[in-house]
């Protein structure tokens, strides 16, 4: 919302502490640049393949995405304790049992594409968020982007296309992940995908 006064065109939103990979930016850039001028209520999200987002150091939590026949987002269900077991990606389901899901199941890693109309919706919803006493009492309350997107989808106001990517997401979920992330970035530098001096 801090950028609302200066962003007049389709734009992307990412987490500042995650590594998303080159292909994910390419698929998002292609989607945003192909939108007709003055498009409204047409959003997108990069759906990372769950198998490309796991940690070697422990379980992770991910939002598993449901889509319709047009690859439009219909739901995001938060799942915890996701890991690779016996060659399959599994998570704990609502009954407390391990359930397998395909390696290509799309998950949300907070890489969104919006048209500028999103700001007005977000501003109104943020006011409602702040007026809720439980959010004011809990100093750790967060105004999550997926909640806003889900509301607009369920209200029939906007659509959100889930974009497939071959990129591997990685971040430091556990302290033990640090060296693995360093090694993965170095491998990309060695392969010529990124310059040796990144900054």
TrEMBL record:
Lineage: Bacteria, Pseudomonadati, Bacteroidota, Bacteroidia, Bacteroidales
SUPFAM superfamilies per record: Nucleotide-diphospho-sugar transferases
Name by which UniProt lists this protein: Nucleotidyl transferase domain-containing protein
Family annotation (InterPro entries): Nucleotide-diphossugar_trans
Source organism, top-level taxon: Bacteria
């Amino acid at each position: 919302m801090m950028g609302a006064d200066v962003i007049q065109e389709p734009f992307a939103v990412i987490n500042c502490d995650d590594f998303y990979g080159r292909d994910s930016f390419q698929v998002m850039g292609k989607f945003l640049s192909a939108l007709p001028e003055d498009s409204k209520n047409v959003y997108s999200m990069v759906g990372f393949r769950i198998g490309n987002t796991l940690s070697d150091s422990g379980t992770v939590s991910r939002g598993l995405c449901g889509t319709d026949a047009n690859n439009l987002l219909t739901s995001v269900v938060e799942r915890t304790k996701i890991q690779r077991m016996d060659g399959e990606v599994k998570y704990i389901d609502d009954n407390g049992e391990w359930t397998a899901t395909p390696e290509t199941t799309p998950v949300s890693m907070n890489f969104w594409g919006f048209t500028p109309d999103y700001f007005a919706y977000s501003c109104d919803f943020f006011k409602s968020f702040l007026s809720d006493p439980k959010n004011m009492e809990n100093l750790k309350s967060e105004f999550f982007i997926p909640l806003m997107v889900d509301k607009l989808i369920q209200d029939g106001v906007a659509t959100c296309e889930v974009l497939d990517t071959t990129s591997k997401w990685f971040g430091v979920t556990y302290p033990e992940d640090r060296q693995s992330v360093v090694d993965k970035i170095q491998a990309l530098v060695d392969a010529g995908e990124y310059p040796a001096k990144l900054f």
